[in-house]
Amino acid sequence: MTSAVTPELESAPWGRRILALFVDWITCLAVVEGLVAAGVLGGNPNGLGTLALFVVESALFTALAGGSFGKLATRIRVVRRDGSGQPPSLLRALLRSVLVALLIPPLLTFDGRGLHDVAAGTRSVTI
Predict the structure, then answer these.
(1) Which among 9, 14, 15, 66 is least buried, having the fewest CB atoms inside 10 angstroms?
(2) Mind listing the pLDDT tens digit for each residue in 82-92?
(3) CA dist 112 to 42, 59, 93, 108, 109, Å?
């Protein structure tokens, strides 16, 4: 599916988006549990360390490289909705990541974007 704003960029399919989220979560979990095992962190109560790392990693990678580690590994890029093809600002990427962490993405809009993308003014596209 393409958008009228950026017709050359195809929206990423939901299956690939879910795979990217899974890759991000497993990677963040492995890093946090590694830090716990090394004694750097005292523990990961209720997975809050993993969640915090996910939000930070996702926001930073999205603003700097156009996607989180999982998105880039699954060939998805997050771009501004304005059609420029540029990654979102750090503030918009942080807003998007927090909303993903709050499980907002499953709520869809008419054009196939999740509410996290609508709020941040972004789109997830295939590369």
Answers:
(1) 15
(2) 989 999 999 99
(3) 41, 21, 19, 6, 6
